[in-house]
Amino acid sequence: MGPTLDSSYEDWVRVAEGVVPPGRHRVGGREEDGAGAVFAVVSPRDGSTLASVADAGEKEVDLAVAAARWAFDSGPWPRLAPAERGRVLLRIADLVEEHRSEIAALISLENGKPIAESYGIELRAVAGTFRWYGQLADKVCDEAPHTDPGALALVTREPAGVVGAVVPWNFPLTLAAWKIAPALAAGCAVVLKPSELTPLSALLLGRLVDEAMEEAGVPGGVLNVVAGDGPTAGRALGLHPDVDVLAFTGSTAVGRHYLRYSADSNLKRVWLELGGKSPNIVLPDAPDLDAAAATAAWGIFFNQGEMCTAPSRLLVHSSVAERVTDAVIQRAEALRVGDPLDPATEMGALAGAARLDAVRGHIDAARAAGARLRTGGAPLDPAPVPGGTYLRPTVFDRVTPDMAVAREEIFGPVLSVLTFDTVEEAVALANDTEYGLAAGLWTGDLSTAHTVSRALRAGTVWVNCYEEGDLTVPFGGYKQSGNGRDKSAHALEKYTELKTTWIQL
Ligand code: NAD
Predict the structure, then answer these.
(1) pTM of structure
(2) Does the keyword field hold Signal (predicted)?
(3) Do 25 and 103 share a structural domain?
């Protein structure tokens, strides 16, 4: 089973050194080189090249879609009893757990996140997601509405077909699992395109899914994985006429492309999980201001701030602003930024040099606009691992709502502190954004919790906590944070069509 969170740094380095990263597409149950083009996957941990990976162009995407099309139109998968499909998903969960250490090490190497998070959070979520949808597969019921006595109406939920899934690099396997597991449970076939920054863990997952399918006697093609960049491989999938559903997680800017690809091709269903600029409101009656500050710091620096739901705008009542901000800064300065492979590390490397440059650009712009830098703002010098991309946790106060640092998604460990004097002002500030993914609220008053939660235009509102939840609850955004919902039974709606059969008796 390999090391766990109790294992030593040396153990994890040994696992990481022993991982053989997969480098070829998975199409129709086989590994394929494609036309021969390759690209390098570079580790943000130390700038080294982890692997050379087959680079998908239109032709490779076409072959992957053809394999999925066959699996859906002619293969056994959509025609299996739902309980049988469920059993395969449970087996995938087991295989993920068997390979948990290896996959966790690979994610920390390709993405830069701490091993405690890859192993403890991401891999647990991936196995848990396959298990949850495996158990759900045969619990979905159709409807027979009460109609005229002379007729029998059936409303049946049918698999939507071939799903293209395109995901980012920040939670490379969790976000893939949130799409693949409900799609497979519903009876769809999938082509997954991971981010070009983190294709290795996805290719490994493809191998495990094929193993589970083979054991169940299901021919390959139910899940295909093609590595490649967005403007080529992603675009080809988005425009493909044989893809029925495109499930995307990524930036709002790229989400717009997928709507265009759909409009320019076959009007495939497009589901979007996009960016955010989430507010975290601290009212003076919060039950525990220290907990509010500690959670605000944890939330923005978790996963290096590379979180769609990052509480990047701390909106704090002016009467407690100084106390809360000072406590957040203390936490920021105490955070252990270090080697992603060290189990004691709390914040790892940003996902590469381009990300580091982009985040530093936001920091420079905030300073120029007049925000006050309270801590951080620069890379760690020396870097915990030479060649890696490590940034100090950064906090700005005296931020005003018009500044770019308060409006644009930074996707890095950068917190903006804004103040308010009334609850109405806090709600207006919170909603003053094009995004609507998540929000936090700290209050000890039950009525305030309900009324403010109702007033917030966000898909998730956390009260007296942040980033809590489990698979039972839906996740997704209002406004330009997207449409549709991942997780929970609602995710099945993305991957199914409703059919009405009206029988005249
Ligand atoms: P991104 O939008 O740049 O890339 C996401 C995916 O789209 C990648 O696979 C990429 O290859 C592909 N892509 C890029 N350009 C493309 C193009 N022109 N045509 C087709 N495909 C293209 O996002 P990212 O940098 O990988 O991830 C960060 C973003 O993801 C942030 O905005 C973050 O908020 C968002 N995100 C959202 C959620 C959510 O559930 N709402 C979760 C995680 C991340």
Answers:
(1) 0.98
(2) no
(3) yes
Domain containing 108 equals 9-274
Type and span of the H or E element at 359: helix 353-369
Q: In this structure, are residues 375 and 333 in contact, taking their beta carbons and an 8 Å threshold?
A: yes
pLDDT for 1 equals: 62
- Tell me the per-residue pLDDT of 271-322, one tens digit each, with 9 for 90 and over: 999 999 999 999 999 999 999 999 999 999 999 999 999 999 999 999 999 9
Residue 494, in any domain of the structure: no
Query: CATH number of the domain that 345 lies in?
Result: 3.40.309.10
Active site residues: 273
> Which residue CA neighbors atom 13 of ligand 1 most closely?
230
Is 401 among the domain residues? yes
For the record, the structure tokens of 26 come out as 């998975």
Distance in Å, CA 289 to ligand 1 centroid: 34
* 429: in domain: yes
DSSP string covering 268-323: -EEEEE-----EEEE-TT-S-HHHHHHHHHHHHHGGGG--TT---EEEEETTTHHH
Q: Could you give phi then psi for residue 92, rounded to 5 degrees? A: -60, -45
Q: Which two tokens stand for residue 396?
A: 């700005």
pLDDT tens per residue across span 345-365: 999 999 999 999 999 999 999
Question: Do 83 and 147 belong together in one domain?
Answer: yes
Q: Do 264 and 311 have their domain in common?
A: no
The verdict on residue 205 lying in a domain is yes
Ligand 1 shell residues, CB under 6 Å = 166-170, 175, 193, 195-196, 229-231, 234-235, 238, 249-251, 254, 257, 273-276, 308, 409, 411, 437, 477, 482
CATH of the domain at 97: 3.40.605.10
- Write down the mean pLDDT value for the chain: 97
Looking at the structure, tell me whether residues 283 and 270 fall in a common domain. Answer: no
